[in-house]
Write a structure and sequence with these properties.
This protein is α/β, with parallel strands linked by helices. It folds into 2 domains: 2-81 and 151-222 and 310-362, FAD/NAD(P)-binding domain (3-Layer(bba) Sandwich), CATH 3.50.50; 106-145 and 225-308, D-Amino Acid Oxidase, Chain A, domain 2 (2-Layer Sandwich). It has helices spanning 10-21, 38-41, 56-80, 104-114, 123-129, 151-165, 210-216, 276-289, 335-350; strands at residues 2-6, 25-29, 87-88, 91-95, 118-121, 139-143, 147-148, 168-170, 175-180, 186-191, 196-198, 201-204, 224-234, 243-246, 249-253, 259-262, 297-308, 315-318, 325-329. The strands form 4 sheets. Strands 5-6-4-14-15-16-13-17 form an 8-stranded mixed beta sheet, sandwiched between helices. It has a 6-stranded mixed beta sheet with strand order 8-2-1-12-19-18, sandwiched between helices. A hairpin with a 2-residue loop joins strand 14 (243-246) and strand 15. 47% of the residues are buried. The structure holds flavin-adenine dinucleotide. The site of flavin-adenine dinucleotide has 43 residues, from helix 1, helix 2, strand 13, strand 17 and helix 9. Flavin-adenine dinucleotide is lined by residues 6-12, 29-32, 36-39, 41-45, 174-175, 205-209, 213, 228, 230, 262-263, 304, 306-307, 329, 331-337.
Length: 379
């Protein structure tokens, strides 16, 4: 069986890996450099932002994915010797008197329902475990079992493993159109340089750029880029011990002492670059929430385009009107957390095994209703 994967982000690469392990002849085509877009830019928090705002089917998928991470980490270390820096940081959500949204009770209900152990900390308890937190904290929600991964290291390990398995990842090879039989079923792709690749199945995993190819081949797929800007601070290791999150701002302490501050949610199309406004917002949140970080050195900033869907859910599965075409995109804010289950389900499915999770909520041709709480940010 031959499969072409469009897009060398984490989703396309990891699915290609799982396909190859099932004996599939797979090639990944990438319009720019592999592993350089959203998957590289993300913060690597292995837990959704405010998961209680999503339908239950989403948490089921997240939990199934996170269960696969220990095995994935061990496999990548064993096969490549590369450390993906998956560490248990725990997650703290501080609550303040003037919070516009009070998350406490919804978070408690969600945690109880899905077996995520959550503690409600008093200000003293919160400051005991995270001494640099703002002293204005009134209560903090604490999940000890939250992990993070360092995206570039994860991608590097996946790329090394693909190389070892002999999977071709062809860079600077933009897919310009899908090729179809007279019957309408998809049988390959053509690149903008005019090269054709025949295939029994094509997987569209082109992140924020997926909509264009879908529409060209006659089906509606709503994916919009939602830009996220990030600032990296250089601090001493141990300055921050946990992932701290408040509204859309979060702080992720890396092993080497660096603290990643993210992230904006911008509806600005594919406008690249970092802006004064966004950086000021992120640094203002830093001073408000972790005041002692005001002495930290700003080391780097970058951005990425999250592949946003109107309801915040990914599109996973086959396109019923186009035989041979499969979709794995629209992972929005959660593509790193959802990558292991996406890769497993998609590879099994393409190879003929039905998923043992109910995937109806993620069908590419579902009726998508825009969700104000987790969908696209308002302009
Ligand atoms: C600032 C930020 C913070 C984030 N934080 C987190 C987090 O903490 N936890 C989490 O789980 N997720 C997070 N995410 C989301 C996560 O990074 C994404 O959901 C995930 O990386 C999407 O992966 P992807 O492979 O679909 O897309 P991408 O990584 O964008 O890859 C798509 C690839 O397809 C290529 N492509 C596009 N069109 C074509 C074409 N026509 N032909 C060939 N190639 C093509 C692109 O060049 C690109 O390389 C964050 C994202 C951002 C931007």
């Amino acid at each position: 069986m031959k499969v072409v994967v469009i897009g060398a982000g984490l989703i396309g690469l990891l699915t290609a890996l799982r396909l190859k392990q099932q004996g599939v002849d797979v090639v990944v085509l990438e319009k720019a450099e592999a592993a350089s877009e959203s998957s590289w830019a993300g913060a690597g928090i292995l837990c959704p932002i405010h998961p209680w705002l999503y339908p239950d089917s989403f948490t089921d998928l997240v939990n199934a994915s996170l269960d696969l991470y220990p095995e994935l980490q061990a496999e990548l270390t064993h096969e490549t010797g590369h450390d993906i820096q998956r560490i248990q940081s725990g997650l703290l959500i501080p609550c303040f008197a003037d919070d516009a949204v009070k998350h406490q009770s919804a978070a408690q209900v969600w945690s109880d329902k899905f077996d995520w152990e959550m503690q409600r900390l008093t200000p003293k308890q919160a400051l005991d475990i995270e001494p640099n937190l703002s002293t204005f904290v009134e209560e903090a929600l604490y999940w000890q079992d939250v992990y993070q991964v360092r995206n570039p290291e994860l991608l590097k390990a996946v790329m090394l493993y693909l190389q070892k398995l002999g999977v071709e990842v062809i860079e600077h090879s933009e897919v310009a159109q899908l090729l179809e039989h007279e019957t309408g079923s998809v049988c390959g792709v053509q690149t903008s340089q005019g090269q054709t690749y025949e295939a029994d199945a094509v997987l569209l995993a082109a992140g924020s750029w997926s909509e264009k190819l879908a529409v060209q081949s006659g089906f509606d797929l709503h994916v919009k880029p939602v830009k996220g800007q990030i600032v990296l601070l250089k601090t001493k290791p141990g300055t921050l011990k946990h992932i701290v999150k408040h509204d859309d701002a979060y702080f992720v302490p890396r092993k080497d002492g660096r603290v990643l501050v993210g992230a904006t949610m911008e509806n600005v199309g594919f406008a690249r670059g970092n802006t004064v406004e966004a950086l000021s917002e992120l640094l203002a949140a830093t001073q408000r929430l972790i005041p002692s970080l005001k002495h930290a050195q700003v080391e780097q900033q970058w951005m990425g385009f999250r592949p946003g869907s109107p309801d915040g859910l990914p599109y996973l599965g086959k396109v019923s009107a186009k035989q041979g075409l499969w979709v794995a995109t629209g992972h929005y804010r959660n593509g790193v957390a959802l990558a292991p289950i996406t890769a497993k389900v998609m590879a099994d499915w393409i190879c003929g095994t039905q998923p043992n999770i109910n995937m109806d909520a993620f069908a590419p041709d579902r009726v998508v209703c825009e969700s104000e709480s987790v969908g696209y940010p308002q302009l």
